[in-house]
Design brief:
The complex is a heterodimer of chains A (584) and B (579).
Chain A lengths: L10 H10 L1 H14 L1 H18 L4 H53 L8 H41 L1 H48 L1 H6 L3 H53 L5 H43 L25 E8 L9 E8 L4 E5 L6 H8 L7 E6 L2 E2 L5 H7 E4 L8 E2 H5 L8 H11 L2 H7 L5 E2 L8 H14 L4 E5 L7 H12 L4 E5 L4 H5 L2 E4 L6 E3 L1 H7 L1 H15 L1
Parallel strand pairs in A: 3-10, 3-11, 6-9, 9-10
Antiparallel strand pairs in A: 1-2, 1-4, 4-5, 7-8, 11-12
Chain B lengths: L3 H10 L2 H33 L5 H52 L6 H40 L1 H9 L1 H38 L1 H7 L2 H8 L3 H42 L5 H15 L5 H21 L19 E10 L2 E11 L4 E5 L6 H8 L7 E6 L2 E2 L5 H7 E5 L9 H5 L8 H10 L3 H5 L16 H15 L3 E5 L7 H14 L4 E5 L3 H6 L2 E6 L2 E6 L1 H4 L3 H6 L23
Parallel strand pairs in B: 3-8, 3-9, 6-7, 7-8
Antiparallel strand pairs in B: 1-2, 1-4, 4-5, 9-10
Classes of the chains: A alpha/beta (584), B alpha/beta (579).
Chain lengths: 584, 579
């Protein structure tokens, strides 16, 4: 279970799981058979107690057989007691396996940029794993027991009176045969119900989170109607499930009650022929009324509810753990093995990138040289592709056209481990995780000394924060105090400053800091002497950089601040509004 | 607070037919189940005595038919009744949340209301079905006990001896179990929280290649979870063992007493078979332990629903605004409190029709509250807000919607597609109108770069904070009300875009009343009038040029050396930076 690599929840996972836990499975099967022995013996013992004891006027012998029945049931309780922990030894590891698969799948998919992993929906997966655990244990506890009891009751019935077994078995078998395909129909309708539920929850979440906007748009009634329609959809889906389940109930209770009627009708003839004693007749009814009928009904209803739910939830989990689309570099083309570049020189030639096949390109024909140690600031209107540029530079996405190389090697062919060491990207949404401050700071350089961590924290202006939190051992995240967006950014900046990277990409990484704090942090990175690309949140970042890239489709330009003021009307515009705004 | 019982009962009243069917079938089924062993005893006795058995056997068949039919009908009725109650609860919750609007729902964290609608209502709505089925099941079991007593009092006594220890076992299971279950849920919740935390850092994890390490970190509480799980199994083993010893003891006692009664001729052979059947029926009450847990969950769910349903709702008005009213906004003596704090302190303010008023002031001065009052997103604690002389509470919701519109700092992404979002306030708007509004808000550039342009589903649109703001502005342009409130709606745009969008809006809305909540000095400079709020009062009202003479006014914008420095960045889940 310590596997942290993602793997889909599918039949291979379950087959592998059963192979690994064969011992527990065999133990459960063995103890189950022993556990069902009393179910096998109950009618026989009741018949003996009557025929040889109470009906024969020998109460002592009657008590002996009934005492034996009691002993058999105690034996069964003992077997259940031995068996129960073995069920735990199947269910708990299965849960571990599923939680691991879900967590690894979600994290890897998210890291690979899959968009469907945002939000709480994915975290709900762990809740779904929990329902798998509950369902599997319920199935193991009841369906297993019911199935074995049903089987044993019939074996006992056959031992007691073969003719009775012969006339009562067919209706039961027929019921089981007829039910199997109906369970599949039930599963289909339950899946529809689950989809309706999800659609309703999604619509409600969107509406309630935007309730201010709904009111401001005067759309209350319309939105209420939309929600109401979803609510009705779900209600109808539940009723469709109930209709199928109702038909199943009808079938199963017919099948479970018929044998007794058949017995009552056949009994006079069997008694006349001497093929059945009175005690045996009563023993047989106790098998049918106390064993077969309840077990059959419960078995089908358990399979029809928990079993179908289990199949549905597993299907959902399986889809959500499918591997994400190929990430660059993971599977390089034929013949291309991962390479380690000799230098961290970045070069872009005619690079283009679009969000989708039909979409207009975000970045179009961009050419740029970033030799080791250079310092570039990127400015441009919102949505011009600044973030996308850092994504490409970090090797998180592949250009659609053109050539992006690192030390002469196309970025997609660069060895991943080398790339992760060489390039550090700090996005706008700073990542602070549960653990100590130290864990967070040495995230990108696990062997860093405390002195280095504190020096970097000081350099980017995060030292006061570290001290206030209580030093490197202080907890942050779930166990720590809530941090503001700016404080989270300081932690992320200090972490990047510690990292061994020779290329640092700051994608609006200081946007929650005040201008003075931003300047201090940017200067700290410039002083590292490594390549620095800053996506500017404020135009003041551009004034500090030796080179500025103005990114905006066809109006893209690159140069020094002074050059761009002359040559790029857009840049002059950006700076001009800023100057106007501050001095108006 | 509306009691959980009241809530479930009211919802039941709205699905009365199914409720009656569910109850009647449950009671009939129970009666049939109880009568069957007695009929079976008569049939067996007739068969054993070689008497004519057709009558009793036919009775057995009839009772079984009743049990079978009511069982199937009850399954159907429970589905209809349960789903009807859940739907009724969900409808009232949704309607009430929408009517209570921002003030009524402000106390519920994001995502919480949706949880109450889906899970809370489902739990509460299942209470009726649980009650009907569990109470008839318990009654059937009691009936089984009574039947044992009636058949032979000694048999009844033998069974009843087993009841007190059973109750003790069940109580000890609940006591020992609840702590374990809670611990298990907490540990499992921590894994969810850690996973959610890591997903928030997806871009960092992707760029650092640390997905495997992150997975290991998320799974750190897993061994603890496993240990607690095994302890739950151990508890089940112990409880099962106790029950497993008690049940045979009771059955042996009952059968022994039955055998003796048979020997003495107090009961017949068929009646002994009935004893076996009634004992099984009486024991079945044990299965209803789960119903206790379920009812507890239902009560908790109903309380969560009641908290929403009890939110106050402002009464809607009945008047319409005079046609073609110019859109003069008047605030008279408006006071708003938040706890003990005065957010607005008897503010008097008139926004003449067709003018642009900028509202400035330090954060916490009450600017956004003032903005919310104008469209009745919030009610004042005292005083009156009116448009063209008609107090807002007197306007119908439709009239109010046509009178006042908003663009926000962080607009919610409503509608299914980008085009649907822009046309959300006026769904009948043509594609041309949507396109024109997007153009004026400078949104058409990035929309054409989306995978399916205007038809891109919002869930698939990688939008930054500034892009979402521009969609919100385009939405307000399509809405086109008489009074427009821009609540910091251009704050995430870069200065060049802001200037262009600002002038496009000014020309589109030149004759409209505009209220601009502003942090930037440039916004104040473009407005006709500036209202300067401080500590909930209007400190000064005048043109920007006049106010700029004052040092304290200029000091307001001293921190604004950063034209793109939007305080508080967008954290809406839809607005991650493009990847």
């Amino acid at each position: 279970m310590s596997e942290a690599a993602p793997r889909p929840i599918d039949r291979h996972l379950f087959a592998g799981f059963l192979r690994q836990h064969r011992k527990a499975a065999v133990a459960v099967a063995g103890w189950s058979l022993l556990e069902a022995v009393p179910a096998l013996a109950s009618g026989l013992l009741v018949a003996a107690a009557l025929d040889r004891g109470f009906l024969a006027g020998r109460p002592a012998e009657g008590f002996f057989w009934i005492g034996l029945l009691g002993a058999a049931m105690v034996f069964r309780a003992l077997m259940t007691r031995t068996l129960t922990p073995w069920l735990g030894r199947i269910v708990e590891p299965l849960r571990d396996e599923l939680v691991t698969a879900v967590a690894a799948g979600a994290v890897h998919r998210a890291a690979a940029g899959a968009r469907d992993t945002a939000g709480a929906g994915v975290a709900r997966l762990t809740v779904q794993v929990e329902s798998v655990r509950a369902l599997v244990s319920a199935l193991l506890r009841s369906a297993r027991q019911l199935g074995v009891s049903l089987l044993m009751a019939f074996v006992g019935l056959a031992a007691l009176s073969a003719p009775v077994a012969a006339v009562t078995l067919p209706p039961v078998l027929l019921t089981l045969l007829l039910c199997a395909p109906r369970l599949r129909a039930l599963a289909r309708r339950q899946r529809r119900q689950l989809r309706a539920e999800e659609a309703l929850t999604a619509a409600a979440g969107e509406t309630f989170d935007g309730i201010r906007d709904v009111v401001a748009c005067g759309a209350r009634d319309r939105v209420a109607d939309v929600l109401s329609a979803r609510i009705t959809d779900h209600r109808d889906a539940v009723r469709a499930v109930a209709r199928t389940a109702s038909a199943n109930t009808l079938l199963v209770s017919l099948g479970s009650h018929l044998p007794l009627l058949v017995l009552l009708l056949a009994a006079p003839r069997l008694l006349d022929r001497g093929a059945l004693s009175v005690g045996e007749l009563l023993g047989a009814t106790s098998y049918l009324v106390g064993g077969v009928a309840p077990a059959l009904r419960a078995l089908v209803s358990v399979l029809g509810s928990w079993g179908v739910q289990l199949a549905t939830v597993l299907g959902r989990l399986s889809r959500s753990t499918l591997p994400a689309r190929r990430t660059p570099g993971q599977a390089p083309g034929p013949g291309a093995s991962p390479r380690a570049p000799r230098s961290p020189d970045l070069s872009l030639v005619n690079v283009g990138y679009a969000y989708g096949p039909g979409a207009a390109p975000v970045i179009d024909g961009l050419s740029l040289d970033l030799p080791a140690g250079s310092h570039l600031t990127v400015v441009g209107p919102s949505g011009a592709g600044k973030s996308t540029l850092t994504t490409l530079l970090a090797g998180l996405a592949e250009p659609d056209s053109g050539r992006l190389t690192l030390g002469g090697v196309p970025v997609t062919e660069v060895d991943r481990a080398w790339l992760h060491r060489a390039v550090t990207l700090i996005p706008q949404e700073a990542y602070v995780f549960t653990g100590t401050v130290r864990d967070n700071l040495r995230y990108l350089r696990p062997r860093a000394r405390d002195a280095d961590l504190l020096a970097s924290a000081t350099a980017v202006g995060a030292r006061a924060l570290v001290d206030r939190l209580g030093g490197l051992d202080a907890p942050v995240g779930l166990d720590g105090p809530p941090l503001s967006s700016g404080e989270r950014q300081l932690v992320a900046l200090a972490r990047a400053h510690v990292s061994p990277a020779s290329i640092v990409l700051l994608d609006e990484a200081c946007c929650h800091l005040d201008p003075a704090a931003e300047e201090r942090a940017e200067r700290a990175f410039a002083a590292r002497g490594t390549t620095l690309v800053v996506v500017a949140h404020r135009i003041s970042s551009a004034l500090r950089a030796p080179r500025v890239l103005v990114l905006d489709g066809e109006r893209t330009a690159i140069g020094t601040h002074a050059q761009l003021l002359d040559e790029s009307p857009l840049y002059a515009d950006l700076v001009g509004h800023w100057v106007a705004a501050t001095t108006a | 607070m509306t009691s959980p019982q009241r809530l479930v009962w009211d919802a039941t009243a709205r699905t009365r037919g199914w409720f009656v069917l569910a109850s009647v079938t449950a009671v009939l089924g129970s009666a049939g189940t109880l009568a069957f062993p007695w009929a079976m005893a008569r049939a067996l006795d007739a068969v054993v005595a070689r008497r004519a058995a057709a009558g009793p056997v036919l009775l057995c068949a009839a009772l079984l038919a009743l049990v079978v039919a009511t069982g199937a009908l009850q399954t159907l009725a429970n589905g209809g009744y349960g789903s009807g109650t859940v739907a009724a609860l969900r409808r009232s919750l949704a309607r009430r949340a929408l009517d209570a609007g921002v003030p009524g729902t402000a106390g519920f964290p994001a995502g919480d209301l949706a949880g109450r609608l889906s899970a809370g209502c489902a739990q509460a709505g299942s209470a009726g079905v649980t009650l009907v089925t569990a109470s008839t099941a318990v009654l059937t079991s009691l009936g089984g006990v009574v039947a044992l007593w009636l058949l032979d009092w000694r048999i009844g006594l033998c069974f009843s001896l087993g009841v007190p220890p059973l109750v003790l076992i069940a109580r000890s299971f609940m006591n020992r179990g609840s702590g374990l279950f809670l611990r298990y849920q907490e540990t499992q919740g921590r894994i969810s929280a850690l996973l959610l935390e890591a997903l928030g850092g997806a871009r960092t994890i992707g760029a650092s290649g640390t997905a495997a390490a992150e997975t290991r970190r998320i799974l750190e509480p897993l061994p603890e979870l496993s240990r607690t799980g095994h302890r739950v199994w151990a508890l089940q083993r112990d409880t099962g063992w106790q029950v497993g010893l008690l049940i045979p003891a009771v059955e042996v006692l009952v059968l022994g007493a039955g055998g003796l009664a048979l020997l003495h001729g107090d009961i017949s052979a068929g009646e002994l078979a009935a004893v076996v059947a009634y004992t099984a029926l009486a024991m079945a009450a044990l299965d209803q332990l789960d119903a206790l847990f379920a009812l507890g969950m239902s009560a908790a769910g109903a309380r969560r629903v009641a908290e929403v349903v009890d939110q106050p709702v402002p009464a809607p008005g009945t008047r319409v605004r005079p046609a073609g009213g110019p859109g003069t906004v008047t605030l008279s003596g408006v006071t708003v409190r938040s706890g003990n704090r005065l957010v607005l302190d008897s503010v008097d303010l008139v926004v003449p029709a067709g003018t642009a008023l900028a509202v400035v002031g330090r954060s916490g001065a009450g600017k956004s509250t003032l903005a919310a009052l104008i469209g009745r997103l919030r009610e004042p604690d005292a005083g009156l807000v009116a448009i063209d002389g008609v107090p807002l509470p007197e306007l119908t919701p439709q009239a109010l919607g046509a009178a006042v519109g908003y663009a926000f700092e962080r607009p919610a992404l409503l509608g299914t597609t980008v085009a649907g979002m822009i046309a959300f306030a006026r769904p009948d708007a043509s594609r041309e109108e949507v396109g024109a509004a997007a153009g004026a808000a400078r949104a058409d550039d990035f929309i054409t770069r989306l995978p399916c342009g205007y038809d891109t589903p919002l869930t698939d649109a990688p939008l930054s904070g500034g892009e979402v703001q521009r969609l919100g502005l385009a939405r307000a342009l399509v809405h086109d009300p008489a009074v427009i409130v821009l609540d910091d709606a251009l704050s995430s745009l870069d200065t060049a875009t802001e200037a262009r969008v600002g002038s496009a809006l000014a020309s589109a809305w030149s004759d409209r009343t505009r209220v601009l909540i502003a942090h930037r000095v440039s916004t104040a400079a473009r407005a006709d009038l500036v209202a300067w709020l401080e500590d909930g009062r209007v400190r000064a009202l005048g043109t920007h040029a006049d106010l700029w003479q004052r040092d304290d006014y200029r000091a307001l914008f001293a921190a604004d050396t950063a034209p793109e420095g939007a305080p508080g960045h967008d954290t809406h889940p839809h607005t991650q930076e493009p990847v």
